[in-house]
Amino acid sequence: MWNESVDFARILPHTNYFWTEGEQTGLSENGALLSKIRTFKIARTFDNRVFIKTNDSQLKMAEALAYNREGIGLIGGMEEMDGGNYHAPLPLTQEQKDYIKFFKEHFDYYKGTTNIADVAVLHTFNSMAYNSDLPYQSTFLFEQSLIQGKVPFDVIFEEQLKNLDRYKVLVLANQECLTDEQQDQVRSFVHKGGGLVITEHTSLYNAWHQRKENFGLADLIKLKAPDWHDRRTPEAILPVSEQRNEIGKGRVIYLPEVIPSVPKPTMVPMAGPYFKLAKNHQQLIDAVQWASRNNLSLLIEGPETVTMELLKQENKNRLLLHLVNFNYEKAPAENLTINLKIPEGKKYKS
């Protein structure tokens, strides 16, 4: 597949990949944008790469080039013969050949990149393991707003709470279970000037999913937890629109709910049509903007089916902006407005 003059084993001598299956790329019947963007972001968080099948879709190849690291995925394949045996290789389409050629000719723009993220969305193991319903719905829908709102973000885990300095905003979307140490790390981030967006019942449970009398982060959100009834009764949504506070050098905004457009039934995986943008999508984006003191790295005006990834190449002194239109077949994205902040100490050259 590759010209012999390009030795990828030499260029990328120490690369780690993991395989993913099951996720969809495209638009569902109800207009929900489905993607592997979260998986690619998790891979970057762990300095890893994703190996995926992209041999059946131009959109999948484009998504991989924009979000994956130095990989376009599995483009080729084998033709299935009688009896389930695989034999002849499938011929590459002209579309696939064009993508391979583009990747090869522009590989210098794909190697050695680091993503730029203003926002970190936290997934805590305890929150996601002990309650497989609402924390997933709220966290994934908040991420969906960031994806379609074209806000640069990372998916992070407990270990990354030790190094939040690179982020302007931390999002805790219904992360119910937080330890005392994790709460202190969040407080430190805010007092040093970070922005915090917190939703629903974040910090209302301890690491073992035992209910507390009040929010563990009540000192930041300035609200009292709803009354406790029993484990069979869902936690009440606080009757407030939102709560904004200046804490130390930072900002904290509490949102009582991430409101799904298509509520996920209990015990059903968070997938497919449930990814339709939240009813309060704009409120989520506005909350992040406010928490960042309107200081995000870029603002893009364009269709909600266009996504972005902002990268840098330190050794080349480059910023790279990828745009992917998930509705390219029906609605070409035109007349996008992009406002990009040039990093301090840098000058725009070309």
In brief, what are we looking at here?
The protein starts with 7 loop residues before the first helix and ends in a 10-residue tail after the last strand. The chain has 350 residues and is of the alpha/beta class.
Hey, roughly how much beta strand do the residues contain? 15-25%
Mean pLDDT: 91
Label the CATH architecture of the largest domain.
Answer: 3-Layer(aba) Sandwich
Spatial order of the strands forming the largest sheet = 9-8-10-11-13-12
Rg calc: 22 Å
* Number of discrete helical segments: 9
Overall domain count: 2
CATH class of the largest domain: Alpha Beta
Tell me the overall shape.
Answer: globular
Assigned CATH superfamily of the largest domain: Class I glutamine amidotransferase (GATase) domain
Describe this structure in words.
By secondary structure, this protein is an alpha/beta fold. It folds into 2 domains: 8-114, no CATH class; 117-291, Rossmann fold. Helix content is 24%, strand content 21%. The chain is built from 9 helices and 17 strands. The protein has helices at residues 8-11, 37-45, 58-67, 94-105, 125-130, 134-148, 180-191, 218-221, 281-291, and strands at residues 17-19, 26-27, 33-34, 49-51, 78-80, 86-89, 114-115, 119-122, 153-156, 169-173, 195-199, 243-247, 250-255, 298-301, 306-313, 318-325, 337-340. It has a 6-stranded mixed beta sheet with strand order 9-8-10-11-13-12, with helices on both faces. It has a 3-stranded antiparallel beta sheet with strand order 7-15-16, covered by helices on one side. A two-stranded parallel ribbon has the order 1-4. A hairpin with a 4-residue loop joins β15 and β16. α3 (58-67) packs parallel to α4. It is globular, with a radius of gyration of 22 Å. The protein starts with 7 loop residues before the first helix and ends in a 10-residue tail after the last strand. Mean pLDDT is 91; it is low at 1-13.
